[in-house]
Design a protein that fits this description.
Blueprint lengths: L14 E4 L16 H11 L3 E6 L2 E13 L17 H4 L7 E11 L3 H6 L12 H15 L4 E7 L4 H7 L2 E2 H6 L3 E5 L8 H4 L3 H12 L10 E6 L11
Parallel strand pairs: 4-5, 5-6
Antiparallel strand pairs: 1-2, 2-3, 3-4, 5-8, 7-8
Length: 238
């Protein structure tokens, strides 16, 4: 899965690698669980996800959680950050046995430095392939560490403002990486976030897409899955 590394707007190569315990103080952790559970994550899965680095500054993160299915426990994955349709996988609906590496949220352009100024991400890092590079790195980590599959919630296609707000990659990006759709939010109506729970810029994108004729069902996210058939046998989860 060798690809050219993304670069910053100033031409610097962006380094992508797993986030280990000794780097935690340099990584924005606003979307991770409490400190005790973070330590448990390091103990059970070695890393808390992938980081993107511009020099010595972490400018993007992909938070990840290890689950065993069927009958896995998502306790370390905060309920507020876990899509409800992941339960389909946890309850054995996808015929997977073994550990699954799950993508939670992406935050490109967020760093300790940027967050000190504003909750808005640094848009200079948008559109540079950093999110996709984080996903590729995560897939390779899962493959090398014996995971049966990688699961990820894919945001609606062509709705960039929502992807930034929700912290996700479009399901179409996952499809290009070899994932297939295995579950989706249900209903032909708009999801609740598109009715009354999104920021103004996200709602403006929704209204424009509706005016352009986009069906309401296409605003729903999808659970994407990549089965890793050649993954080695994983170590037991403790």
């Amino acid at each position: 899965m060798e690809t050219e590394a993304p670069t910053s707007s100033s031409g610097n190569s962006i380094d992508i690698h797993p986030i280990r315990r000794n780097e935690l103080g340099r990584v924005l952790i606003r979307c991770l669980p409490d400190g005790t559970r973070i330590e448990t994550l390091f103990k059970t899965q070695e890393v808390i996800g992938m980081g993107a680095w511009d020099g010595d500054k972490c400018i993007a993160q992909l938070h990840c959680y290890r689950l065993r299915v069927p009958n896995g426990s998502p306790d370390l994955w905060p309920a507020w950050a876990r899509p409800a349709y992941v339960e389909t996988m946890l309850n054995g609906g996808l015929d997977i046995t073994g550990p699954v590496w799950c993508h939670a949220c992406f935050h490109v352009g967020r760093s300790i430095e940027s967050f000190a100024r504003s909750d808005e991400p640094d848009a200079h890092y948008f559109g540079r392939g950093i999110g996709t590079a984080l996903a590729r790195s995560s897939i390779e980590w899962a493959r090398e560490h014996g995971y049966a599959a990688v699961a990820a919630p894919g945001t609606p296609a062509n709705l960039f403002t929502f992807a930034v707000w929700a912290g996700g990659l479009p399901w179409t990006t996952y499809a290009r990486l070899g994932f297939t759709e295995v579950a989706t939010e249900t209903g032909d109506d708009l999801p609740q976030w598109a009715k009354d729970n999104a920021p103004l810029d996200v709602m403006a994108s929704v209204k424009k897409a509706l005016a352009d004729g986009r069906p309401k069902r296409e605003f729903h996210s999808r659970l994407m899955l990549l089965r890793l058939m050649n993954a080695r046998q994983a170590d037991p989860i403790t």
